Amino acid sequence: MARTAGSHSDITGPRVAQAALQLFARHGYAAVSMRQIAAEVGVQAGALYNYTPDKQSLLFDLMRGHMDELLAARANAATPRDPMARLEDFTRFHIRFHLERPDAVFVSYMELRNLTAGNFATIEGLRRAYEDELEGILREGVQAGLFAVADTKITTLAVIAMLTGVTTWYRAGGRLSVAQVETIYWDMVRKAVSA
Amino acid sequence: MARTAGSHSDITGPRVAQAALQLFARHGYAAVSMRQIAAEVGVQAGALYNYTPDKQSLLFDLMRGHMDELLAARANAATPRDPMARLEDFTRFHIRFHLERPDAVFVSYMELRNLTAGNFATIEGLRRAYEDELEGILREGVQAGLFAVADTKITTLAVIAMLTGVTTWYRAGGRLSVAQVETIYWDMVRKAVSA
DNA sequence: GTCTATATTTCGATAGAC
DNA sequence: GTCTATCGAAATATAGAC
Q1: Is strand C in 7 Å reach of the CB of B27?
Q2: Which intervals hold domain HTH tetR-type (chains A, B) (predicted)?
Q3: Is the N or C terminus of chain A more exposed, i.e. has fewer CB atoms within 10 Å?
Q4: What structural domains and CATH numbers belong to chain A?
């Protein structure tokens, strides 16, 4: 079948998502108009509605896609038995994964309050599932006498906050490689939780 | 002099700022309309312009006020000689100050990209000045052989990210007092940077 | 699938009466 | 100082031609 002139559904769709992600990260969801997204893609505003029912779905699909990717990547990662080795693996994974997609990380963190109630609950559930692995590692390490933390839940949130903070200053091509950054943060995490 | 009926400039002004802070924190600057702010205060939209030239100034004044308050409070704090004692003081101060004004903290962190270029530069300068004290403490501690950190700048940002993260989960009236939270975080900071 | 055109709403900000 | 009324611009989303 010959293609209708101007038909690009299979490539325009991803381009819409990509443009939305970039603009949401830069200016914020509420500050970005559908017309801006359309202009970035190179179509008129009306054409966007072939790819998303509305602006809210555009945001939600980006965030759910990011969280799904995070959990899938983590599920495929190596899981050493030793809590110390598992914690190092988690730490390095978290930094690497987040530095590889700064826009998605930024949007997923900053735009939570622009989700509808139902969409928010879904994203929160996925985030909780991710955090639960880290808390499990900490609990095992405490039980094994390797770690000394006052409260595994608080420590989980503190470690994730510290690690995710790397996205606020790291820029590719700077003086440190990702591997070097991983090592610096792993050093801090290891010392902070060790017995 | 008798007051003109409906004249409340001395109390309405702060109420406008308060309402804007609350709404910006909850929904985001771009998502909040001047009419919403006016409704929260109990006046019509036009009356807001007796207290601010425009919406941008409303945001900027809130953020500059918060940063000024932060730096002023820190300038009045005790500054022990010993780097370890200074670091503990800084840590406890940071947590206490931030937990006491969650809305201002949230807005000052999340709405940076909604500032005009000039306003952004001003706020960034104030934030940098605050971070510089922590980096100075770390440098002194390293020189004294008390601390072992790979990079004082990165450690500064990592520690602040971890500490500020407390605002994402702490709620007044929970199972932990602020003092207990301070102690838990100080334990992690101390271990993370110690030699 | 994309376009033009538009319905409908809402926005920031201002003018002028009181 | 606050109100009502409104201007001009921009927003989301839809309808229908091609």
Answers
A1: no
A2: 10-70
A3: N
A4: 1-52 (1.10.10.60), 54-193 (1.10.357.10)
